[in-house]
Amino acid sequence: EKIRIEITSLSLTESRITSDETIQQLFVECRLYNFIAEETPLSLPKPACGQRIHYNYSNMIHVDKANNHARREYLKSMLLKPDLHTDSLRFTVVSDPPDDQQDLECEDIGFAYVSLREIFQKKRDIIDKDIDIFDSQDDSAVIGKLKVTVEALHALRSVYEECKDD
């Protein structure tokens, strides 16, 4: 009755991000539709091209019937209506301004996605997989990789069984 999300590490490819001096610290936010946004508790120094920074951050999204009815209803609608464009967990890589420049704002620099519907259809969780991070200013450009784990199959099956009972 829960979805486990782990953000292991991040690497960048040669791009405007690696050459931008104002981008120094990065954290990652994970969002399920409009419900929850969780972020890594630490922002870490931007890695050099080809290197990785390790967050080793893990979180649970509870989708049990008793306490999380709205999340369950969302998952049901996602499984039953394949035309929804909201079937993914969205990971946002965010630039965190350095302590001495707090007048600067946090800036979204890239996005990565994991389709929950795909996990359900392929009948397998995503374990320690590198997913592409797309540039927030040009969604055809890949600026790096985010290594994630998303364990959702059990929860999705449970929700699907409930759909069949309704």
Structure write-up:
By secondary structure, this protein is of the alpha+beta class. 22% of the residues lie in helices and 47% in strands. The chain has four helices and nine strands; from the N terminus they run βαββββαββαββα. A hairpin with a 2-residue loop joins β8 and β9. The longest helix has 13 residues, at 153-165. It is elongated and about 55 Å long. One of its GO terms (molecular function) is thromboxane A2 receptor binding. This is FTM protein. Residues 1-162 form the RPGRIP1 C-terminal domain.
Number of domains: 1
CATH architecture: Sandwich
> What composes the largest sheet?
9 strands, antiparallel
Order of helices and strands: EHEEEEHEEHEEH
Low-confidence stretches: none
Q: Looking at the structure, what is the overall shape?
A: elongated
- By CATH's scheme, which homologous superfamily applies? C2 domain
Pairing-aware structural class of the strands and helices? Answer: alpha+beta
Instruction: Say what the CATH topology is.
Output: Immunoglobulin-like
Mean pLDDT: 90
CATH class: Mainly Beta
Percentage of residues in helical conformation: 10-25%
Q: Count of helical segments?
A: 4
| Amino-to-carboxy terminus distance | 18 Å
Give the percentage of residues in beta strands: over 45%
| Computed CA radius of gyration, to the nearest angstrom | 17 Å
Total beta strands = 9
